[in-house]
Amino acid sequence: MSILKIILVPLSLILSLFVWLCAGLLSCSGFAFKLASGLLSLLAIAVMITYSVKNGIILLVLAFLISPMGLPLLAVQGLGKLQDVNAAMKNFIHS
């Protein structure tokens, strides 16, 4: 069992650094995604009024995907799962 713990220590350190880096990138990109989503929503409404409802709806779906409730939320949830795995490894190492 101690050999497995020795192997898991550097892996846990690497995973901790990776999670820390990804969390920083997600927090920094949040502002850009909010701004892009808002601008794309305004463009979608303008397209719906002036050009085509179908194209406006497509743009609204794209705006939702880049909004904080779309794909970035999936990234945050995936990062949470990685943190859970890291916490389980640390609990195993310290037990």
UniProtKB/TrEMBL annotation:
Pfam families: DUF5699. It comes from the Bacteria. InterPro entries: DUF5699. The chain crosses the membrane at residues 6-26, 33-51, 57-76. The keyword Transmembrane applies. Keywords: Membrane, Transmembrane, Transmembrane helix. This is Succinate dehydrogenase. It comes from Dysosmobacter welbionis.
